Structure formats: structure tokens, C-alpha cells
Amino acid sequence: MKKINDFLNSVPMLIVSGIFLAISLIEHIGLLGSFHFPVDPAWASIVISGFPLAYLAIERVVKQFFISSALLITIAMVACIFIGEIFAAGEVAFIMAIGAWLEDRTVERTKKGIETLLKLVPNKGRRIVPLPDGTVKEEMVDAKDLKVGDVIRVLPGETIAADGKITYGQTSVDQSIMTGESLPVDKLTGDSVFTGTINRFGSVDIEITKAFEDSSLQKMIKLVKEAENNKAPMQRIVDKWATWLVPIACLIAIIAFIVTRDIVRAVTVLVVFCPCALALATPTSIVAAIGQATKFGVLIKSGEALERMGNINTIAFDKTGTLTHGILIVSDIVAFNIDENELLLLAASTESRSEHPLGKAIVSFARSKELALKETDNFAMTIGKGVSAFIDGRHIFCGNEKLVQEENSITISESVKTTITALREQGKAVIIVADENAVLGILALSDTLKKESAQAIAKLAENGITKTVLLTGDNEKTARHIAKQTGITEVRASLLPEGKVEAVTELQNNGQLICMVGDGVNDAPALKTATVGIAMGTMGSDIAIDAADIALMGDDITKISYIKRLSNATIKTIKFNITASMAINAVAIVLSVLGMLTPVTGALVHNAGSVLVVLNAALLYDRKYL
Questions:
Q1: Gap between the Cα atoms of 297 and 550, Å rounded
Q2: d(CA 566, CA 109)
Q3: Mean pLDDT of the region 245-256
């Protein structure tokens, strides 16, 4: 039965059904003269387009005990046959089939993002295998067989077969499928690259850091597929309405027959009462909106999340990796009676043996300046204070006041203290550089703010989000400095993961509908607790992305305001579709009871509403909200 149903639901059979219905219409309007077919051709339309409808209705009743709109349409079709309105029955079945086809077409259009992703999944990778004689050989292997630690070589024009880091070479990579950016991004040794992106210029060797099934591209595909399986709250409401409409329609049809003694009017009521447009109002809009978002690198897991986003009035942000790059760099070099490069060289040479992130950042910065680090002797580290070493017989200290002044009795003047305080007020980490006699200078390091962060907050304000909150585990001064730079209105600092959850819960208990934006493992509980959770899809941890409702694959937080606008537009479209479908049904019911519509004209009026709803929803896919 299922095979027969699938066959009759195909596009070729829909065309055949339409041809038979057209032939029946030609006969009905008298274009064939006195010729009449022995059997009304509309019967073919009833069988081809009506059977799948009846099959669906009966299956839902028997297997799920669910009374759906398909049952009401089936009843209307049977009633038309009962009174001899074969053409009307065929028309109801055929136009419903067209409505279903239009819905499928809308869904197919929105799946283009998934299809594009699937096409970009690489089949092969060129693995580099070391040989005993010190040379290497290249072998083409299935992308699924590549393992973490393998090295692959990607030539110009080829698709990158795995997530990894460049170990040799430099190039430009087309990352549009991941970020939506049209221009290629320059990549150097040590930079990360992603599965499915395209190497445009140079040949590069890449060490794989993620298995095939854990790659960024597979993560995107999984998230997009998840988005198709969840119903929105409005859709659940519509399903309930459809359940109640079946008995109501039958009751009104019976009353109309009792009052008018006209079976045709009763059957027409059943025809126009079918809640087809109502049933199509929400799913077509949600699917079109999710498809629109996918085109721009925003992955929405469910229609429910999309709807909730429209009601958000407060947005909370994590700091590191969300508003900032999450990478410490040397931001200030303050030298006292010494050249800045000399100060940086002494500090970097001293820190060259250090494993501390601040020390590594200083060394990295010095090497980026192409400074040749000096050899050190007697390197020593004092936990919580800093490091020291001898360079050319000179004892150099790099650390905080405890190392410099308290342990080694090196005087820190008031002017130096004022400089240190000013830098710390800006949320920067301070390293004092000194020798045995005096403070030589200060290096300040900071996490760099993403250039789009302030723009994102401004855009949210333009879209009615006046309350923004920074939730971070960083210290109060750093948090307030970032908030001042971005325009965030409220700061909560020094928070552990449970502290972020408590902050989100408190805000929600005060009547706020919270959208939480984060990227780390420590953000996952807050993402799950918030009304809507948004994760940074590229920078974010797998746990954060799994916990979130929405993922930004390009990590561009300016797209949060885009999601807000898209959500608002989707809700407006759904409400318009529901209102329009109910209005059309109400008018058609009155006209049917008054005898102004027949089953044939009633079917045309009713199904015109269904087509209107689907086409209006489809417009969401192509509108511009960025």
C-alpha cells in the first residue's frame, strides 16, 4: 500500500491527474457537444490524488488515533461522490495534491543549503606517508578513513578533506560555505582550516585535528537536519485546531442540511471547511525561514527556537571567544630609559623557557617582530609571581610587584605604579620588566576585541534590545572595560559556570526573556537554561553547540540582530497566514450555507487560500534581513 501511495504522490501522476480533471471540465462546460464519456474522467483524479489523501487520514486514525485535516478533506471528497459531484470530488483531491506539491517545493528550496553542504563533503584526501629513507609518498584515501594526526596535502583548487592546522605552506581559502564571506581568507602555517572549504592558491600540508564525523562540515549538516524535525509552538496549536475542526465541520454541515434540506449545501460546507491553509500556515513559514538562515551561515535547530527568538528582550554575552578573539597579545610597551625593542627582547628571552600563557604570548609577539632571542642562564619561575633569568650576565625579572619589589627589593616608583594602575583599569594583564637595579619597563597584554562586537550591540539596540548583559569569568575591571568599549549595559564578572546559570535564571525570574550567546564548555549550562541559546559554531566547543538552539557558523555576532529580524518576520507571516486562512474559510462557510457556492466553486475558493498561504511563506526564503 505504501508503494502504491508513493507512486500516486509522484509529480508525473499529479500531471496525469490534472489532465483527467481538465478533460472532465471540458465535458462539463459543453465543449465536447453532445459527446459524453461513459465514466467521468474526474474519477481518475479521485483515484490518483484522492487515494494518498484517504490513506494518510486512515493511517493517522488507526496508528496514531489522531484526527487530522486529511480526514475532513476525505469526508468532503466522499460526500461529493455521494451526491454525484464527481468533478467536485476530483477537484478537491487534485487541488489538495497541488497544495502538498507546493509545500514540498518550498521545503526542497530550503534544503538547498543542506544539498550544497552534502555536495561539498569531500570523498578523497591526499595523505602524506613518511618512508624509511626519509622521503614521503602521497596516497589517495577515502576522507572517512583519515585519522587525527594524519597529514594531508591539498593542491590549489581542491577541497580540504578534514579539519586541521597548516603545517607547511601558505594559501588563501574560500570559506564561504562556513562563514558566508565571499572573499578568500589568507592562511599561514599554524592557521586552522575546515572541511569542505576550497584551497584557492598555494599547496599546503595540513595536520588533521578532527575526525571526519566530528568535522565542522559534518557538524553543520547534523544541525541543519535537526532543524527539520522539531515543530514550533504555533504548529502544535494548529494541529489541535485541526482536531477540533473535524467534528465542528460535520456538525455545521448537518445543521445546514436540517435547516435547508439541501444536501449540496451541506457537502459544500464540508469542502470549504477543510483546514488545509491553516495546517500549512506554520510549517511552510518555519521551513522557509530556517532555509533563509542556512544560506547566511546561521543554523537554527528548531522552529520553536526561531519563534522564541522573536520575543527576546535581553541578550547576555560571554566575553572570551564571543566578544573577543580569546587570544592574548602584547598591547602596550612602556619603556623607561631603554629602547622598546630592547625591552621586548629582554622580556621575551627571559620568558622563552616559560610555559605560562602570558610568557608564551610575549615570546610569540617578539618573534613576530623578527627579534633574535638571546640565550639565558639560571632560569627560575616563582608560582604566582613571575620568572627570572640571566642574560649576558645581567639578572632580568619579569613578573608582578611581589616578584620585583617584595622578593628582590627593586623600587617601583609612584609614576610606574600610576601607569600599572591605568593599564589594569583597561582590563590588561601587566608584566613588570626589571634588572637588579631598576624597573626597565612594562608590557601589557590583552585579549583583543572583535571589530564587529560594538557594531553588533548597536544593531541590537536598533532592533529593540535595550538590555545587554556581560556574563564572564574574567575579573571586574576587564569586564567593565569590554562593556564600555562595546556598549553593553550590565556586567556580571568572576562567574563560574553555575554563576552564569544563576544570573540567567535570576534575569528570567524578573520577567526577562534571555538569549545567551557563548562559545565555551563553561557556557553550555547557561545556553541550555536561557530562553534561547546561541553558540559560536566555528570557535565554539562541541558541548556549547550541542546545548545551544542556534549556531553562528561564521562567528559573526552581528547576525544575532539578523536572527531577531528573521524571527519577527516569520511570526508575522505565520499570523497573517493563519488569519487569512480563517477569514477565507469563514466567508466561504457563510456563502456555502446561503447556497452561493457549490462543491466545485467552494473547492476553488478554499484551495486558493491554501496556495496563497504557501506562496506567502515561500517569500521568506528570498527576502533580505541582513
A1: 11
A2: 17
A3: 84
> CA-to-CA distance for 168 and 207, rounded, in angstroms?
9
Q: What pairs with residue 301 in β-bridges?
A: none
Which residues form the catalytic set? 318
Q: CA 580, CA 597: separation in Å to the nearest integer?
A: 19
What is the phi/psi pair of residue 502, to 5°?
Answer: -65, -40
Cα distances (angstroms) measured from residue 562 to each of 185, 293, 363, 545, 548: 23, 9, 40, 19, 17
CA distance 285 to 23: 35
Q: For cell 610597551, what's the residue?
A: 333
Judge contact between 533 and 548, C-beta under 8 A. Answer: yes
Domain locations in the chain as residue ranges = 2-111+228-288+568-621, 123-158+163-209, 305-324+450-567, 327-448
Look at residue 394 and tell me whether its pLDDT is greater than 70.
yes
State the Cα angle at 214 between 213 and 220, rounded to 5°. Answer: 95
φ, ψ of residue 388 to 5 degrees: the values are: -150, 160
pLDDT at 62 > cutoff 60: yes
Is the whole model's pTM more than 0.85, yes or no? no
Domain 123-158+163-209 bears CATH identifier 2.40.128.50 = no
Asked if CATH classification 3.40.50.1000 holds for the domain at 305-324+450-567, the reply, yes or no, is yes
- Please state, in angstroms and rounded to a whole number, the distance separating the CA atoms of residues 98 and 90: 12
Tally of CA atoms within 13 A in the half-sphere of 95 that contains its CB: 26
pLDDT at position 20, please?
A: 94
Question: What number of other Cβ atoms are within 10 A of residue 615's Cβ?
Answer: 12
What are the angstrom distances between the C-alpha of 96 and each of 66, 77, 607? 20, 11, 7
Q: How far apart are CA 293 and CA 550, in angstroms?
A: 10
Which letter does DSSP use for residue 554 in this model?
T
CA atoms within 13 A on the CB side of 446: 20
Place of cell 486514525: 61
- Count CB neighbours of 370 within 10 A: 6
Phi, psi angles (nearest 5°) of residue 501: -60, -45
Q: Residue 49 and residue 93: Cα distance in Å, rounded?
A: 5
Work out the number of other CB atoms within 10 angstroms of the CB of residue 23.
17
Query: What are the E-state strand segments in 341-428?
Result: 377-382, 386-391, 394-399
- Are the beta carbons of 341 and 371 closer than 8 angstroms? yes
- CA gap 545, 539 in Å, rounded: 10
* Cβ atoms within 10 Å of 539's Cβ, excluding its own: 17
- What average pLDDT does the structure give for the chain? 84
Query: How is residue 23 written as a grid cell?
Result: 478533460
Give the three-state DSSP class for 477.
Answer: helix
Pairing of β 439-449 and β 324-335? antiparallel
Q: What angle do CA 93, 96, 101 make, to 5 degrees?
A: 125
Q: What is the CA 79 to chain-centroid distance, rounded?
A: 46
**Cα separations in angstroms, 63 against 35, 56, 58, 67, 239:** 46, 10, 8, 11, 17
Task: Check pLDDT > 50 for residue 227.
Answer: no
For residue 115, give the amino acid letter. E
C-alpha cell of 75? Answer: 469526508
Pairing mode, if any, of strands 467-471 and 439-449? unpaired
Sign of CA dihedral 34, 37, 38, 40: negative
pLDDT band (50, 70, 90) for residue 117: low
Architecture category of domain 327-448 in CATH: 3-Layer(aba) Sandwich (3.40)
